[in-house]
Amino acid sequence: MAELLRLLLNVSEKAANVARVCRQEAPLFELLVQEKKGAEKNKKFIKDFKTLADVIIQEMIRHDVCAQFPELNGFVHGEESNTFENGLGESVTVTVCAKEEDTMALLAKVLDGDQTAASLLTNAIHQKLQLRDEKAESLQISLNPDDVAIWIDPIDGTSQYIEGKDEEEPDEGFCPSGLPCALVLIGVYLRATGQPVMGVINQPFKCKDPMAQRWTGQHFWGVSYGDVNACSFTQRSLQKRDHLSVLLSSSEKQAVKDALASLPNSTLMYASGAGYKILCVIQGLVDMYVLSEGTTYKWDSCAPHALLRAMGGGVSDLNECVRYYVNSNDGPRPELTYHEAQLGSEGVDRWANRGGIIAYLDSSVIDKAAAALAGKI
Fold first, then answer.
1. In terms of Cα–Cα distance, which of 151, 221, 230 is closest to 189?
2. What is the pLDDT of residue 48?
């Protein structure tokens, strides 16, 4: 399974390249944005969009993974429908083909015959790329590919990707919005239990070269399975701090904001993108990320959840944590799992984290949040 991690790192970097290519030409990018309808739509947003970059990245990852690990055929799941409508109103099913010329012909059809754009994207999709990571390459994991499945969020934070604000991420801190909030997320979980065991996060837009006007990115990974807990981050001991920093969505309920603001020495902070907010917890920039609504999905949380588990943290169902606290339960708190759809739901809501989420590195913050939110959600 170390081979799978190395493959996912490589395809995540290819995905980041595709995301950057699709953003470089504004007129081209405008052709690539399409509004989601019906069951595809996230109920949180009045308008919810997908881009051709989303669909290409998802299908490219699916293609590359299943080519090397055929046993994962049918077990690589993504956020997006792979149908796209071109300017002529034709519905095109986007796939990555074995031959470059076939992929290029399909993309040219989506792009209304734009051969230059199709060629550019095809080159990015079919490039042979090796992302070197010595720590990942030395890892040994006794896990069978037949036992796992994958969630892909090809571009988490699509609204930030579409808006394309050029705000750079500071060296010590995070961006409340902008291109750095857009991430490629690939999470691996056990088919039997839904436990997240491996995650890769790629941030395509970390720094922008002011001269070349080109973005470069960075990647992160984590593995938590059996007695293996490994992560690209240097493990650091948690220090007890007098203050408590809580990361929220700007659209969070006012009652939740007020309740968390009432915690002693607490600071509320805001950022875009569910994956990016969990990444801020992973990096130790905040103590926890809290969301009371069921507006994130399995593809949002699976990859960063695996990284948090590798570091001793986790992602839990917020409503369950509050209920657990109120009922004075003992034992481990309920962690999110990724293998079962919500009964009685349709479309993307089948895979919603319905009870909200709380992401943390230090589990002691859970009871603080639960105490503040008891009776409020």
1. 151
2. 35
